[in-house]
Design a protein that fits this description.
- Pfam families: Abhydrolase_1 (PF00561).
- Keywords: Aminopeptidase, Hydrolase, Protease, Signal.
- Belongs to the peptidase S33 family.
- GO terms for molecular function: aminopeptidase activity.
- This protein has 370 residues and is of the alpha/beta class.
- The chain has two domains: 274 residues, Rossmann fold (3-Layer(aba) Sandwich); 44 residues, no CATH class.
- 44% of the residues lie in helices and 15% in strands.
- The chain contains 16 helices and eight strands.
- An eight-stranded mixed sheet has the order 1-2-4-3-5-6-7-8, with helices on both faces.
- Helix 8 packs antiparallel against helix 9, helix 8 packs across helix 10 and helix 9 runs antiparallel to helix 10.
- The protein starts with a helix and ends in a 6-residue tail after the last helix.
- About 4% of the residues have low confidence.
Length: 370
Amino acid sequence: MKRLAALLGLLMAPLGPAFGQTPVGPNSRAEAVKIIAGLREIVSPQGLQAIETVPIGGIKQVVSIRSQDLRNPVLIYFHGGPGFVEMPLDWWWNRGWDEYFTVVQWDQRNAGKTYVASGPNDPALLTPERYQADAEELVQWARTRFSKRKVFVLGHSWGSMLGLKLAAAHPEWLHAYIGMGQATNSLESERRGWIWTMIQAQADRNVQAIAELRSVAPYATKPGPIPVKSILTQRKWLGHYGGAAWRRRGGDFEAAAIKLAPEYSDEDVRNAFKGQAAVTNALLPRILSTDLSTIRTLKVPLLLILGRHDRNVSSEVAAEWFATLRAPSKRLIWFERSAHHMTSEEPGKLLTTLVAHARPIAEKAGDAAP
């Protein structure tokens, strides 16, 4: 019995400082981040884990690269917002992606690590056209950096506007375009979002919500930009009723993960959203008056990922556009337990979707590790 007890002690030793003791939790952000970084460290000799600064659009812009095998296809993630970074969120929702893809996360100008690297932008450069040019430069950089003729682009929310326009203009750069929370006819999306939110508020007999929503009416019924104040009022109550994250009030549950991002220093966390107000004021009215449903043909495969409950960027409007689109191949996949935050709401389904429906396109082209 003594020998058995000793053997068990040896076997259990790696679980803690002593068998039976309760592990002590981290006492600081630094300790927590160190644990997370250790858990997700890429040790494969064929892989790469890096933060790189890239000259794009006349400034320093920052990307993260994660890959277990650089022979795998490159997937570039265009984040939403505008001004909301997603690089510091992927430590918990994209586990496994780097086993099948070389994943490039990009902090756009005036946001996240790019804001820290380059400081606030000249307001004259905060235009949809400048961001579109940045996206194109980034894809060109990635094709050269990883010696790939084609890559995948995944555009989420605002990033889906950049991604769809890039796919229409440069199909020769892409294996496929992946749209998630896809923006198409933005004014129609906004209009339906306001109507849905008002219905929820009336059913809830929420006097404050009804009054604030009425104060911005008529909402998104005329051509041209919507005032920022009106947009934020609509978003406030739409998020409150679960139109952005299904059955959740707002997105604080997701944003909290930024505080534990191993790619982000304390300075990065403090400054992640310092540039967002300027970006919101400069871009949001313009992009929410944009109609990309006029894009009727793509010369590249399309994978469309939509949350069934998405009212933030209407999945109904996106699905209507999808039905009219012509492409070499196209697939629409509904996420039944998601609204606009599919990465956080159904991360497992998102990974299996990418592996089952995107990666085979690259494999067929000979662009994947065995």
